[in-house]
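Weekend entry, working from home. Most of the wet-lab plans are on hold until the incubator is repaired, so I used the time to fold the two sequences that have been sitting in the queue since the last round of cloning. Logging both here for the record. First:
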Amino acid sequence: MLTLKQIREDREFAVERLSVKGIDATGIIEDIIITDDRRKATQTELDGILSELNSISKQIGILFKEGRRDEADELKNKIAELKEKSKVLEENLKTFESELNDLLVTLPNFPHESVPAGRTDEDNVTVKQGGEIPDLSGNKLPHWELAKKYDLIDFELGNKLTGAGFPVYKGKGAALQRALIAYFLDKNTAAGYTEVMPPLMVNEASGFGTGQLPDKEGQMYHVTADNFYLIPTAEVPVTNIYRDTIIEEKDLPVTMTAYTPCFRREAGSYGKDVRGLNRLHQFDKVEIVRFEKPENSYAALDGMVAHVESIVMELGLPYRILKLCGGDMSFTSALTYDFEVYSAAQERWLEVSSVSNFESFQANRLKCRYRSQDKKTQLVHTLNGSSLALPRIVAALLENNQTAEGILIPAVLVPYTRFAIID
């Protein structure tokens, strides 16, 4: 959530920054400032009345001691009037604070100054490309046909057990999943990230803290009996570990990694782009999360991007890194890099990771601060990235490594799979 200071400090800057995300915030910002002015005026008036009440109470005590009961009783009547007025002001203050919060949560994060202009994914900027796109023979198969041929993934069985988008991994397909999860976690922990294993359901406060609620409520599975939400990503529970927390400066950065299944309704997703593993309702993902001092967060973001790139390179997958334009960024992000790998049989790029800096936006919602050596507190910066999401990595590995003899396993995964080929 943006802070009032960010909005009030430079109204024109706020409007300009949000316009990069395709938001005309002129009216909302005006409403925020008007509501905040009313809140401040009400608070000032209430403080004045409370101060007057305190002063009169002291006077009454003195009058009673001096035996001036009639004068004391008159002041008691005055106190009753002031208390009634203070109750009205307190109710008004709660109303203005609630209205102010409702307005603030509708505004997305400011995009970083380096974010390119644009409205759709076609306006994203490729900042780097690596690896070689394999030249497969004319009888190349997409991963859903390879999965059936080698009995790796059963999409129809998943549909029977639950519904579309809930595949069943079998045999070497299940082993490949497990191998990738272990490999990703080992890479992340070797890079200094502490592994955690969080719950797969979160409460409303956690969903709000990282910005999924109320922005993405329709995309999350809601367990209505207990008002819990199935997590769309490990980012949500892991980041919320530090909700309502003050971190000591000496303990920064905080770095964590987690493997979890992820659950997304993906309402409205249809067509050829969602076949097979391309878009699922349940999928596995390994996440990295960082809490940083503000002045260090963009160097940390660059380090996260380099880390994810090293993993993709070790898997031998052709990839490209995109800097997202304003219109294609998430509600909470200040700057996002997407990783895509090339799917040789589908002949298209598949997104496998987003690495983002949220600056203080999530921290303000989380009420997460750090205390510097001079004992002052300020909001931390939060960052996260997929490291990595499995479904499209698996799709690209199966398709790009298919041969007449079978599907070759990248060398870095063989110690985890304990087989070098799927045949």
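Second, folded right after the first finished:
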Amino acid sequence: MNFKKIQWIFLAAFALLDIFLASFVLMNTRFVSMGKQQTASQVVMKEMKNDSITTVNLSGDNRMGYYLAAAKTDDNDELQAHQNQLKDQTPRIVGSNFTSNFETPLRVDKANPQVKLNQVCHNPKLVINGDQYTYNAHLSTSKTIVYTQKMAGQPLMGPAGLLRFRLNDRSEVVGYTQSYLNPGKVLRPRQTTISQKQAVIALYKHNEIPSGSQVQWVDFGYSRLLTSGNHAVYIPTWTASIRAKNTGKKTRCQVNAFTGLVMKNGGQSINSSVTDNN
């Protein structure tokens, strides 16, 4: 084997080695970069664990949502205008709410009340616009079964747009209280929101989750951001229920799903919570 042939073999070997090393460096840089992206949330979740904070399984998937405009307050006019269609009950206005008592209490399965009440909601002779509401197990209690009005396919997370069925001591539905918002109008095209996990991290960073607390649930829906004239702007939010370890007190906190800022109750600023007695 002559020298020139050996030289070419070494050159080819070195070229292959260079290609291998370059590929290794590029791949290693990519993995380091990906690791850095994951580290921020991983570090916070580890801090939460060290603070004895427990959570439900949190999704890292982003959602989509709109800026919506709706009536500033509940539209009782809509409910009053159609109350004559209701049968087997006595409807009336109490304060700012539309309320009604059934002539005959409705028996429901205490463990799965929505099985019967879904049928009730879809009967226009029993509930006005009831098909626009969906069962919310997280807001329901042993005495009240809560349905939330849907806006852009998601539940309203606030005092407006609620349908609350009242139960007696025999777990029978004796009536309901209803508030209603006219469906919201889209103000801007659909946008990406933060994930469920990012929302909880935001709450933790703003000291909304004390040490030893339990994050019981984190739901996606629409909440009022601000009001302008006779209309209000609604945005996608993450609403979390947090249970204190020492007192057992439950608090509801909301995060703007577009910006990641913690919201005041129905308002624009950050770092506030809403007491939840459910």
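Plan for Monday: verify the second prediction. Residues 3-50 form the longest helix (48 residues).
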